[in-house]
Amino acid sequence: MWFFARDPVRDFPFELIPEPLEGGPPGPWALHRGRKKATGSPVSIFVYDVKPGAEDQTQVAKAAFKRLKTLRHPNILAYIDGLETEKCLHVVTEAVTPLGMYLKARVEAGDLKELEISWGLHQIVKALSFLVNDCSLIHNNVCMATVFVDRAGEWKLGGLDYMYSAQGNGEGPPRKGIPELEQYDPPELADSSGRVVKEKWSADMWRLGCLIWEVFNGSLPRAAALRNPGKIPKSLVPHYCELVGANPKVRPNPARFLQNCRAPGGFMSNRFVETNLFLEEIQIKEPTEKQKFFQELSKSLDSFPEDFCRHKVLPQLLTAFEFGNAGAVVLTPLFKVGKFLNAEEYQQKIIPVVVKMFSSTDRAMRIRLLQQMEQFIQYLDEPTVNTQIFPHVVHGFLDTNPAIREQTVKSMLLLAPKLNEANLNVELMKHFARLQAKDDQGPIRCNTTVCLGKIGSYLSASTRHRVLTSAFSRATKDPFAPSRVAGVLGFAATHNLYSMNDCAHKILPVLCGLTVDPEKSVRDQAFKAIRSFLSKLESVSEDPTQLAEVEKDVHAASSPGMGGAAASWAGWAVTGVSSLTSKLIRAHPTATPAETNVPQRPMPEGLPAPAPTPVPAIPTTSGHWETQEEDKDAAEDSSAADRWDDEDWGSLEQEAESVLAQQEDWNAGGQAGRAGQVSRGQARGRGRSRDHKSPESDWNSWEAEGSWDQGWQEESSPERPPEGTRMASEYNWGAPEPNDKGDPFSSLSARPSTQPRPDSWGEDSWEGLETDSRQAKAELARKKREERRREMEAKRAEKKAAKGPMKLGARKLD
């Protein structure tokens, strides 16, 4: 019954947008946009409405429907579904745009490049070659209106309405009856005598020449306009002239036309076409070829169209990583293409791959992920960071490769805002404590201090109070000078997180000790920091009501905004130390600071100390602080505490490079007393290596060294100064002055705490210098070694004397 009849159009699984596209193909077909009802994916729908009295057109439309349904080729419009009723024909294809409409939009946007035109023409010629050479079919309708472009910028050949077989029974090509299409017919079709000698591809190649002319010059007004190439590139003009030649016999086969254009210097001989051809055959390429391709791909992506990168390169990169074992080489082009994606697409396509990459054990992939984390960190949510990424990243702190340890430290600047309480205040602090205390690379210890200063505002109030002062105090005692500078800058960058009590009793005593540091850059930073902290204390002393305002951040909860002001010093410090680490690793791939800075052995009294290794003088910049005038009035000093975050804290990179050149003679100052301290410090380091504590106790040990009075008592020299030497009490420095020179720093020896062995970076290494009992033990151990050496020499001498010289020919019985 009629009321039970179903409407096939309504039940069709694709929804049609009623308004047809502008610039659609001429003829009976209308092009509409559409989408699949189940998934919402976009499609294109070609619609033909059956009209009474138009049986010929209906037969042509049905023939095109059949051809498109049976022909499958990457360069021919892809058929998805179709509907045929008595009233209409619906042909569903991939989502495409008419070529004329696409080129117009690209020209208006100023993004049209010859590269994509060369690849588009390559695709159309390849489709014609498939039809003529493989299928023996003549398209018979090549023009601008029958070429379409998909979302990746790929050109597709459509308009199969008037296609016929090249092996026909003497029947000519079907008539079109549409003037807009007949203007592309070659001139030999007007000769009905049949005496013209031609090839089966001659007509289609003429129409290809018309298409090339229209792509570069716009709509073809008449056939005579083909004589003027117009804007066609010079490298393409000779091949274009072959296509529109009057003699159909000399028009090249589509396959030969491709070869001619792909020759060196040809129009289709470029990086873009080569990349596309490689991607089409990537499944059959060798692994070494794929590796080389992906390594070179990132250099070319900037010149490629954006749609091509998003819809063609990106899927191939994801597939290569997922199934092709491409490894770390896909990371650079992957993140480069990721810049073209919106946030939702990035979350769907890139983030799952990144999370999976972090679980890889490939070191090259891990270090590239850490280096490029800035490009994708904004797309990672906190649960993903804490549960899937951070547990893998922390393994880098324990890696034997210094470069990975350094990059892991630097990555914490980006991960810290997204870490939860346990990961940030407990797990991360354990690793930072171990790195700063025991890492054998000075630049990495310095980087750890810098990173801690940057993320200090994200820590909880209790963690800040327990960690920051102890950590920066330890950094100021590091043998590596840039680490000491970083410790001072750490105090400066987090000045608002300390109470006035801590400033007076913990921070200022540490900074005052740095005023006699052997490095001028450290002294300069220390003096500047002392002045600022003193001005802060003085302002509170003058007006006690300011105390609450000054200490408002001390007990405040962690806040991302509090660390923003410290971004400048942290940014350049990490960069400077990073380059320094790279130089250090390149220069000494397997060396440790204990190997590069070996202290000189104590020399017997009366012998001159060995001369230190000559180091080329490198000018050291004192940074922004030296450019400021030292004589400031009281008003300027009182406001200095408010300018910590606005100042440039000097150039740590330049200072680090200067100090690195002087590290070799750091512990070789040539004074006998300091040499004895070196040997005693080494003996103490060996003793501590036996009772090695766990990293968890590092922060507690820092708290234990808060007894500054005891530390100062231990630092006093146990030796009596020579007669005639002026005591340091005159300078109030706590150490004797070796001579009467005007500059008290000119003969200042290196810091008493020499650089220890790599295994002696224990948590108690900064608690103080050796005590009297330790000195006695060290001296006793030295005497025992000396006695043992003498005994061994005596035994060797006795054996040599007992044997005596052997006579020639004598037989050795023993």
Can you give a write-up of this model?
The chain contains 33 helices and 10 strands. It has 814 residues and is of the alpha+beta class. The strands form 3 sheets. The chain has a 5-stranded antiparallel beta sheet. The chain is elongated and about 120 Å long. Regulates COPI-mediated retrograde protein traffic at the interface between the Golgi apparatus and the endoplasmic reticulum. Involved in the maintenance of the Golgi apparatus morphology. It comes from Prolemur simus. Keywords: Coiled coil, Cytoplasm, Cytoskeleton, ER-Golgi transport, Golgi apparatus, Phosphoprotein, Repeat, Transport. Residues 601-617 have a biased composition (Pro residues). Residues 590-646, 662-814 are annotated as: Disordered.
Considering the chains and any ligands shown, give keywords for the structure.
814 residues, alpha+beta, five-stranded antiparallel β-sheet, 6% strand
What structural category arises from helix and sheet content?
Answer: alpha+beta
Specify Rg, calculated over alpha carbons: 40 Å
Beta-strand content estimate: 5-15%
Mean pLDDT: 74
Which parts are unreliable, with pLDDT below 50 for 5 consecutive residues or more? 561-771
- Principal-axis shape equals elongated
Through-space gap between termini: 124 Å
Strand order of the largest sheet: 1-2-3-5-4
Level of helix content? 40-55%
List how many beta strands DSSP finds.
10
Main sheet record: 5 strands, antiparallel
Number of helices: 33
